[in-house]
Design brief:
605 residues; alpha+beta; six-stranded mixed beta sheet; 11 helices; 27 strands
Length: 605
């Protein structure tokens, strides 16, 4: 059961935890209905081919033969024996996947996954990630961070900065860096060579503020506000209006620390303010200056990043070079050991002997020659991986669901697979794309993509209907996430709007758009539908969100006051959805997303 989170005395809103968080790790296993679960942290998603082979062997020898990627780019192994902790650690240490027993759960670092590959960032920040990880492991005090505390390293394109991290460092024009804490916190400029040290100093400032507040805060958003009056804590990073544990998904931001709440209408300044942050930076020998808040519409902003991550396919390097990278994913973020080995072999044989996992549950293989790229992509497609935006599995996610999670109200993975495989709306949403084969029984609810559904080296179809084009012209479909209960474990973070498909416990699903739509468009009304009509309801929600219209056409009233989805098998056509896994019966979802302390609630009419 999750621990109670009670308000601090005199400060409404921020929770006071009764215990430390229980996020699983490589040494602290979590017991689920399908066996023990281990989460191996991969700072920045960086893996050598040797490390990737090690993970595949662990999944086969100790687990259920699959590897799950999380919404922070970490790897989970399920179906483990409850007593395999020492054996697991003995396998991880020799390949560098367990550099610190005391810090293994705090190594949560996401990064712009295409940094240094496509020429679109302001700097190659991969070195920042490695330095940050080394500094964290070398700092005894950093071990006190919770397993949910998140660092983000952004190369200036705004993708990692949009993920709602506690500490973010962003490459800035001119070769510098900007340090951010939480949403709406102070922004400080530091030198690029000090970026990693600044991030660790900011984490130490958080621990200081948490100790002073007496809240045992796990994340920056849990800290109380200074000078909070009546109603304080009901807005800001904790997720929008309505109190803690609820979110409107708007990514609402406050003004600079010097702004007066009374005059600006912004919430009171956070306990982690510029003065405290500056003291810790100075103590670490990091020179800094205030950056202030950027003008509206300028710079990467929380909540506006691409929600689906790099589109699958070939990624060309800038200039006349002969190198490229491959971007792929797996249905619902679940990779078989054989698929994982193929990725590792592709990287070793044709690339830089490195793979990168992404917070969108994808994998990037860098360093291939342009001649080798298309053939390698076809091999990965033949193994059942998603290699083009035209795949009906692109941008579809789900929690664990039944039977792995005792709290789930439905087998969401099987229902998602049926919607992808049988929904005519999904097939119609892929211009020129192949029809998906019906889901088959006996595949744990997640059949491999049908042959030919992906694997074209180039996406000739263009953005699918109802999908927005990202800054680089690739398709950026509105993600779809299936959840078995209100916790919505592993749901998309703060990087934009997404379609929430929530099991209601009566054999139905509630389909709603969560988060703020670009351009201030009005989200369609939620609908409640049986599993067989989810494909049409999702397609209608996407189409309505893209067009900026109100409720889906022909919606009718349902018993709970929401709308019923349009009936019939020929529901409105629209794009596909996106996906993320979920937590399994521990107090607080994996990677700190979803759950009673941060769940994004579906919108109500």
């Amino acid at each position: 059961m999750p621990s109670p989170a009670t308000p601090c005395p005199g400060v409404p809103g921020p929770p006071r935890r009764s215990r430390d968080d229980a996020c699983p790790g490589a040494l602290r296993l979590h017991t689920a209905d399908d066996g023990a679960l281990a989460r191996i942290r991969l700072p920045g998603g960086l893996l050598t081919s040797r490390q990737a082979h090690c993970l595949a062997s662990i999944a086969e020898d100790l687990g259920n033969g699959e590897l799950e990627l999380t919404s922070r780019g970490n790897v989970q192994v399920r179906g483990l024996p409850g007593d395999c902790g020492r054996q697991l650690a003995d396998r991880l240490r020799p390949v560098g996947l367990l550099p610190s027993d005391t810090h293994e759960r705090v190594r949560n670092v996401v990064v712009s996954p295409l940094t240094g590959l496509d020429g679109r960032g302001r700097a190659d920040v991969g070195g920042w990630v490695r330095e940050l990880d080394a500094l964290l492991c070398a700092d005894p005090g950093a071990a006190a961070l919770s397993g949910r505390f998140l660092f983000a390293v952004d190369d200036g394109r705004g993708d990692a900065a949009a993920l709602g991290a506690d500490v973010t460092i962003i490459a800035t024009p001119g070769g510098g860096a900007e340090l951010r804490t939480g949403a709406g916190g102070p922004r400080l400029r530091v030198a690029a060579e000090d970026a990693a040290r600044a991030a660790v100093a900011a984490a130490e400032a958080f621990l200081h503020a948490a100790a002073e507040s007496g809240t045992r805060a796990w994340r920056v958003r849990d800290l109380p506000h200074r000078g909070a009056g009546p109603g304080a804590g009901e807005t800001g990073e904790s997720g929008g209006r309505g109190g803690p544990g609820k979110s409107g998904g708007s990514g609402e931001r406050t003004g600079p620390p010097s702004a007066s709440p009374a005059s600006s209408g912004d919430p009171a300044p956070h306990a982690l303010d510029e003065a405290l942050l500056g003291r810790h930076l100075s103590r670490a020998g990091v020179a800094w200056t205030p950056a202030g808040q950027p003008p509206p519409g300028q710079g990467p902003r929380e909540g506006d990043g691409p929600a689906a991550g790099p589109a699958p396919g070939l990624i060309g390097a800038p200039g006349p070079g002969e190198r490229c990278a491959l971007s792929v994913s797996a249905p619902l973020g679940r990779y078989t050991a054989a698929q994982w080995r193929l990725l590792a072999e592709t990287a070793a044989r044709s690339g830089d002997a490195e793979i990168r996992t992404t917070p969108w549950r994808g994998v990037v293989v860098p360093g291939l020659s342009r001649d080798a790229g298309p053939a390698a992509l076809r091999r990965l497609a033949g193994a059942g991986l998603v290699t083009a935006p035209g795949s009906p599995w692109y941008a579809i996610g789900s929690c664990a669901g039944r039977p792995g999670c005792a709290k789930s109200l439905a087998d969401v993975r099987a229902d998602a697979a049926r919607a992808v495989g049988t929904g005519p709306a999904e097939r119609a949403a892929v211009p020129g794309g192949p029809a998906a084969a019906p889901a088959t029984a006996g595949t744990a609810g997640v059949p491999a993509p049908p042959a030919g559904a992906s694997g074209r080296p180039d996406d000739a179809s263009g953005p699918p209907a109802g999908a927005a084009a990202s800054g680089d012209g690739t398709a950026a479909p509105l993600p779809v996430y299936w959840s078995g209960c209100e916790r919505r474990c592993g749901r998309p973070g703060d990087g934009g709007a997404w379609i929430d498909v929530l099991a209601t416990g009566d054999g139905a699903y509630r389909v709603a758009v969560n988060g703020a739509l670009p351009g201030g468009r009005t989200a369609p009304r939620p609908v409640r539908v049986p599993p067989g009509r989810t494909a049409a309801a999702i397609a209608a929600a996407r189409a309505a969100s893209t067009a900026g219209t109100g409720p889906p056409a022909h919606a009718t009233g349902a018993a709970d006051g929401t709308s019923a989805a349009p009936g019939g098998a020929d529901g409105a056509a629209g794009p596909r959805g996106e996906d993320r896994p979920q937590r399994h019966r521990h107090p607080g979802p994996p990677d700190g997303t979803g759950g009673p302390d941060g769940t994004t609630r579906a919108r109500t009419p």
